[in-house]
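Q: Is it fine to ask for two folds in a single conversation?
A: Yes, each is treated on its own. Send the first.
Q: Here.
A: Result:
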Amino acid sequence: MDRRFAIAGLLDNRVTENLSKIPGLGDVPLLGKLFQSRNLSKTKNELLVLVTPRFLDASAAGHPPAMLPFPKPFLPPLPVKPAPSGQK
């Protein structure tokens, strides 16, 4: 049975205010408010790190340690390009 637990979290709370106005008309005192608009947006993001511990048996001296079984490869293998011939 796998037991998972969280070891870290990161919270990001952002408030963004955008002001748009018609050039010239939006700068007129008092009357310029009719030619402006404000947009307020709030975002909340959370990053959570989960851990699944696995215990390995100790390996004998001179033998490589046992590897964890991964359900799929972590990164795909990089393609090997042949060396260009005739270049120095």
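Q: Second one now.
A: Result:
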Amino acid sequence: MLSGGELPAAILVDAIGRLLPGVLGDETSALTDSFQDNLLAPPVYTRPEDFRGWKVPAILMSGNHKLIEEWRHEQSILRTKQRRPGLLDE
């Protein structure tokens, strides 16, 4: 339940606006959105490297962009299998 129509309107404007050329600063960023390729997004990590026992995977700290991209794709598949397996059937 929402108190007014402002928030839903803003969500629609944002969702539709992302599809228009020139709206995003980097056009390729929309290609990594969830569901773009029927996969959920991989986990996202930030600093510090160790927060209350939760550690950033070493591969993400390696600086090897090719391996990081492979890891992210594997994590997307794993996350999709666990949370939305029906998406993999499509």
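Q: Anything structural to flag on that second result?
A: Two points. Residues 65-83 form the longest helix (19 residues). The first strand starts at residue 50 and ends at 51.
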